[in-house]
Amino acid sequence: MVTTEESSDSDATASHLIANLNLQVAAKRNLSLPALSSSLFTDPEEKGYTSTSATSAPPATAGSSSSRKHGHEMGADKISNEIMTASQTLYQQIQVAREEKQAEKCARHDLNLWHLKEKVHQRDNRQEHELLLQRERYEHEKEMKDKDLATLELQIQLEKIKKDRVAMEKGIAGGEIQDST
Fold this sequence. Notes:
- By secondary structure, the chain is mostly helical.
- Among the domains are: 4-80, no CATH class; 141-171.
- It has helices spanning 4-29, 33-40, 44-47, 66-173.
- It starts with a helix and ends in an 8-residue tail after the last helix.
């Protein structure tokens, strides 16, 4: 069982810790101590609660009243709520920072993927263009070869005709007439 003296000591220790925490919070937030202490503790005349000074711990007495404990509990609850709120805010900010970092990473990945696709597309277009030019060259070469072949065939026919004509001229000049029968 907890004795009244141990309870008072724990209340005094908690009050001292809370006062130190208030000083640290005030220093970090650059707040004046009166503004912070007035927001965390109630006025003694207001509801019968007692407030603690942020610079000194309350005296530890063997017989503390329940109203006094209630005042400490309310101050502790307020500080606990502020710490919880600050913790949640910090967690949310960390979460938002992680999400932003992940979104940036995804955007960078998407950009790299787009660049890669663009390079592939350009390479495909370049290769397709080169193949088209090569096909046109081959078709042109084929047309030229076909024309050369046709020219050669015509030259062969011309040579046959010349040969036949020369043979006919020799036959007529020599007086030989060939019978076609």
